[in-house]
Amino acid sequence: MLSKLNHKNFVNLLGYCEESEPFSRMMVFEYAPNGTLFEHLHGNCFFSKT
């Protein structure tokens, strides 16, 4: 379903892998040169626990 989605504001899904031992799922998306969604939402603010 995600691989069929095409929109200028979304990165494309390139692949998917599922492993049984240890159980894990991975989704591979195209490279986004302008940064991550987290970076756009939070800017360059990184909070330390000190």
UniProtKB/TrEMBL annotation:
It comes from the Eukaryota. InterPro entries: Kinase-like_dom_sf (IPR011009), Prot_kinase_dom (IPR000719), Ser-Thr/Tyr_kinase_cat_dom (IPR001245). Keywords: Membrane, Signal, Transmembrane, Transmembrane helix. GO terms for molecular function: ATP binding; protein kinase activity. It is a single-pass membrane protein; Single-pass type I membrane protein. Signal peptide: none annotated. It is found in: Endomembrane system; Membrane. Residues 1-50 form the Protein kinase domain. Its main location: membrane. GO terms for cellular component: endomembrane system; membrane. The keyword Transmembrane helix applies. This is Protein kinase domain-containing protein.
